[in-house]
Amino acid sequence: MAGPETLLEKAAAADAAQAAFESGRKPAPKAADVPPPSLYAARIKVQPKSVTGKYRTIKWAVLIFCLTLYYLAPWVRWDRGPDAPSQALLIDMGAPRAYLFGIEIWPQEVYFITGLLVMGSLGLFLVTALFGRLWCGYACPQTVWTDLFMLVERWIEGDRGARMRLDKAPMSVEKFTKRTAKHAAWLLIALATGGAWALYFNDAPTFVVEFFTGRATLVQYFFVGLFTTTTYVLAGWAREQVCTYMCPWPRFQAAMLDDQSMVVTYERWRGEKRGPHKAGTSWDGRGDCIDCGQCVAVCPTGIDIRDGLQLECIGCGLCIDSCNQIMDKVGRPRELITFDTEARQQARAKGGRAKWKIVRPRTLIYAGLLVLVGVVMLAALLLRTTVEVNVLRDRAPLFVTLSDGGVRNGYTLKVLNKRRESVDFLLGLKGMKDGHLLVQDVGEAGEGQSVILPVKPDKVATFRVFVTAPPDKERDERVEIEFVLTNPVRGEGDAYDAVFVGPHVRHHHDRD
Ligand code: SF4
Ligand code: SF4
Q1: Does ligand 2 have an atom closer than 6 angstroms to the CB of 314?
Q2: Which CA distances in Å does 140 have to 19, 57, 133, 178, 449?
Q3: Which domain holds residue 491?
Q4: Is the CB of residue 48 less than 8 Å from the CB of residue 298?
Q5: Number of folded domains in the chain?
Q6: Is residue 451 assigned to a domain?
Q7: Minimum mean pLDDT among 23-27, 41-45, 244-248: which range?
Q8: Model confidence, pTM
């Protein structure tokens, strides 16, 4: 990672070179006095210059897509019937339940969320192995919102040069007005972002009305405030520092890259020896880089890609756009800075050509794992039941001997009815002939060889169930039993293994 002194030097050199290039003068010589190394890295404010080109256009398209998706998704409605929320994407902390269009995820099924996160990680590994830091440069929320904040900043304060002049200028009415307008606009976007986050946890139309009429809860105001503040600080102030110092991803993504991954690189073999070039003079004996500093000026992380692949580079490709413009101007071939695999770049350096190997062990492994987790998730989703029973056996007392000699065990049954209709479940017992069931608080239907357990729509119900074994029946101390629950209307059900404990009942043919 570059130390502060190198960054300082680079920023100064880039600005001097840019000014010189723009005015047609030669660039100023680089500072010879390098300050002594310091352990503290003061931030050098990065003021990226605007640029146009292929990668910038893709970046705008991804930005518009991501922002539209984020702000509008909670407003999409999904009809689930009268008793259920009609929001397509909703995490209802009160229920608690997550709704994803036609899928409803209960807390017991949190593994679906885990599965989605695992799939997201594997997808990221695969994309990184193929295209390098595509995620960082284009789709990461930090990148998207920083880009949006920079756009607003450019509208209000002007491009790089104007902003740098404004930074240096003493406070004036103009500076104050521009600064105030910028921060106000940033705060508005941050509020919209924090507010939109809350919409994923609340019914969107209701929440917006409650929020602006002061009827939302304190917790809701707190979280909107929290996300507003983080958006404002991270996208407005911290920017590239989040990627360089806070995010762990750049640190371990190196493990996913190889010489077949697409990366942004300066083709040194073509660019060097660099230096200013006078129009009409020969290009012999020198490289194509005219040392104009444009690639540094547009870089959102303020680095010089000509120093090689760096941790700070988010792979956005804006330096490619800017250098291509310069190459067009000076009449040299484009792609001096290029987005390509290291293997192909090396082959070109030797005057040859190489193919991009998409299919290779690591991409196969990532893609294979992705498909595997996807199939498991899909199977789990298709096979998920709408009823579940869990049984807990009483420990104290282990059993009760009744006056007629019968033995009774107590159990607590939790029955989940995920259907949006009331169900009278049928509970039966396997593994104990003549076992008698008694359910508390269900009336007559709660007693017999099989009993009825009524459960309300979309609810978990708890039942106290007693199993009685008749007297004088041959029986071991522990009997394996099974509670079998069935929805008699739909034919679906669930079962739970349990044990029945009682004194050993001897019979004349017992050996001991
Ligand atoms: S690499 Fe391209 S943009 Fe960067 S200094 Fe050289 S010519 Fe200019
Ligand atoms: S070096 Fe180029 S690709 Fe990397 S962050 Fe800077 S502008 Fe983007």
Answers
A1: yes
A2: 32, 17, 10, 28, 60
A3: 387-501
A4: yes
A5: 1
A6: yes
A7: 23-27
A8: 0.80
